[in-house]
Specification:
This protein is mainly beta and 183 residues long. The chain contains one helix and 14 strands, in the order E-E-E-E-E-E-E-E-E-E-E-E-E-E-H. Strand 7 and strand 8 form a beta hairpin. It holds the Pfam family SPRY.
Length: 183
């Protein structure tokens, strides 16, 4: 069973660059219009048999307009839009705190996020729900009725923006194991 461990260098927009660790992403576009959006998928889908999958993204620098989206999507989703804007794509956006579920229309969810924040995403395949965390604190259920072969994804349209993903290669800010034991 292969788990997501890094970003997929062959499955990203040309507006993004990835460092040699395949964990840090930099936005290289102008960030002036929707055509400048760039997204990237992880190297493997999340196996549903793992029951619970959690990852975190550290916002190293929010960039010029804070246009950042963190979420998950299926393999067929285009990578020229933000997470959540297309069918089979879901995301939580930092510039407006909204959730996007297979549509360009967002719904209020949580706080804005920016430079220095860590946003976590937990996919629970036991009850088919998703919740996000901000700096180690849960923000509540974001999505229900999970299905499909899902990849962690990140999108940006923020000039100069930079993030780093943690797929479990270091300690999480959110106490996942404590949450699991109390769940």
């Amino acid at each position: 069973m292969d788990l997501p461990t890094a970003w997929n260098l062959d499955d990203k927009s040309s507006n993004l660059s990835v460092d040699e660790s395949r964990l840090r992403v930099n936005y290289e576009g102008l960030g002036e219009s929707d055509e400048d959006i760039g997204a990237i998928r992880a190297n493997h889908p999340i196996p549903p048999q793992c029951k619970l999958f959690y990852f975190e993204i550290d916002i190293t620098y929010e960039g010029k307009n804070k246009g950042i989206g963190i979420g998950f999507c299926e393999k067929a989703v285009e990578l020229n839009g933000m997470p959540g804007w297309y069918d089979s794509s879901w995301g939580y956006h930092g510039d407006d705190g909204k959730l996007f579920c297979c549509s360009g229309i967002g719904n209020p969810y949580g706080p804005l996020y920016s430079t220095g924040d860590t946003i976590g995403c937990c996919l629970n395949f036991t009850n088919n729900t998703v919740f996000y965390t901000k700096n180690g604190i849960t923000l509540g259920i974001a999505f229900r009725n999970l299905k499909g072969s899902l990849y962690p994804c990140f999108g940006s349209c923020s000039q100069g923006g930079s993030i780093e993903v943690n797929f479990g290669n270091r300690k999480f800010k959110f106490a996942v194991m404590i949450w699991v034991m109390n769940y």
